[in-house]
Write a structure and sequence with these properties.
CATH superfamily: Vaccinia Virus protein VP39
Structural class: alpha/beta
Oligomer: single chain
Distance between the termini: 41 Å
Order of helices and strands: HHHEHEHEEHEHHEHEHHE
Radius of gyration: 18 Å
Number of helices: 11
Largest sheet: 8 strands, mixed
CATH topology: Rossmann fold
Shape: globular
CATH architecture: 3-Layer(aba) Sandwich
CATH class: Alpha Beta
Strand content: 15-25%
Number of domains: 1
């Protein structure tokens, strides 16, 4: 697989293409895998079809204890899908900040916000492992199928901790593994962009969250993802496919929940604390 800088450029290139063309992942670079993972948003209030590019792997806004007036940050906000659902809950007194590494996604999300007349929804260009926000600013942080695209997952989770206010929490939907993938899948840039080969072990994912200082770490939802054989065979042989199926390795969509303890303190300089 490529180095960290190359991976980030790959993600920006592929997801920038989606933002420009207005389609979902499709067969153009990740074998339609994200469409298999996506859950339906149509029953959630605040859902806007123009902002739904079919790139998620869960419904993080289905679970969070978001309240009116809260400040919510959406990591990897894309065209604004989860941000707009959060806006429906926080109302005019709250604030929603979306962060995305892809300029074309930011442009598309801002156009959607303008059409909806949301003045308290802002989209910022930036890397979620070095967020363009102050510490202790968010009541809730959400994210949908994004951490698996980041080379250093532990760094992002550690970045989430100071960004949350003491007592704040996060629901994050993402892809994790139970078992090992064949080398052909692990080394595929296409499957990385499709949210598969960049995923880490479920146990490692939970350990990163606990290690960052979060409490009440739970899985609110877990769903096994069945990738069709015809997609897998683009990257591995039939013998490797048989071995994979016998191994019990599973690809899972999970929604994790964790809280920043109410008494937690974040050290920072005078420029970043309120």
């Amino acid at each position: 697989m490529q180095n960290e800088t190359q991976i980030k450029e790959l993600v920006k290139e592929k997801y920038g293409k989606i933002a420009r063309e207005g389609g979902s992942c499709g067969t153009s670079f990740c074998g339609d895998v994200t469409n298999i993972m996506a859950d339906s948003y149509s029953s959630l209030e605040g859902y806007n079809p123009d902002a739904d590019l079919g790139l998620g792997c869960g419904l993080p806004t289905e679970f969070p204890k978001i309240k009116e007036g809260d400040t919510v940050i959406d990591l990897g906000s894309g065209a604004g899908n989860d941000a707009f659902i959060a806006r429906r809950i926080v109302g005019e007194k709250g604030e929603v900040i979306g962060i995305d590494i892809t300029p074309f996604m930011i442009e598309r999300a801002n156009k959607n916000a303008e059409k909806l007349g949301y003045e308290n929804v802002e989209f910022r260009l930036g890397d979620i492992d070095d967020m363009p926000v102050k510490d202790n600013v968010a009541d809730v942080i959400v994210s949908n199928c994004v951490l698996n695209l980041v080379p250093d997952k532990e760094k992002v989770i550690k970045e989430i901790f100071p960004t949350l206010k003491p007592g704040g929490h996060f629901p994050i939907s993402d892809i994790v593994l139970n078992g090992q993938l064949p080398e052909g899948l692990k080394e595929s840039a296409e499957m990385y962009a499709g949210c598969v080969s960049g995923a880490i072990q479920k146990s490692e994912y939970l350990n990163h969250i606990q290690g960052a200082g979060f409490s009440n770490v739970t899985l609110q939802k877990e769903k096994k993802i069945e990738v069709p054989d015809e997609i897998l065979l683009q990257y591995i042989s039939r013998d490797e496919l048989k071995t994979l199926k016998k191994s019990g390795t599973g690809i899972y969509s999970v929604t994790g929940y964790a809280e920043k303890p109410a008494g937690a303190k974040t050290c920072c300089g005078p420029a970043c604390c309120n």
